[in-house]
Specification:
single chain; alpha+beta; six-stranded antiparallel beta sheet
Length: 125
């Protein structure tokens, strides 16, 4: 998968290959913007699941790194881009479908239906 073939929009369950260095860079940009957990498969076959909270896009792939909180613990993990074989967007994104535009549309639909419309955003779980 080349960086050009990385989709513009990522949803839960999407898996991106890290076969090419630039595809890792593009995938990690998406992982940083994603609000759910990701599962990273390393080139040695081990997997790490957690939330990406920082990424360092350096001039070279070898110097680029991603930082994540490991799922189920407070551990912070730092991974070099060359170590990454695959990224799966495994956790639910609690903000998916909760754009400002969707909220305004639902609010207007409730008002037009004669229902009481509030500013509540709805449950995240």
């Amino acid at each position: 998968m080349t960086a050009e073939s990385v989709p513009d929009f990522i949803v839960q369950g999407t898996t991106l290959s890290g076969a090419e260095p630039e595809s890792v860079r593009a995938a990690m940009d998406h992982a940083f913007d994603y609000r759910g957990d990701v599962t990273i498969v390393l080139r040695d076959g081990s997997t790490i699941e957690g939330y990406v909270f920082d990424r360092r896009n350096e001039r070279t792939i070898e110097a680029s790194r991603v930082s994540m909180f490991q799922a189920g613990s407070d551990a912070r993990i730092d991974i070099g881009y060359p170590e990454i074989a695959e990224i799966t967007f495994s956790g639910r994104d609690p903000a998916a479908g909760r754009s400002w535009e969707n909220w305004v549309r639902r609010y207007a639909e409730q008002k037009l239906a004669g229902e009481q419309a509030g500013i509540d955003s709805g449950r995240l779980d």
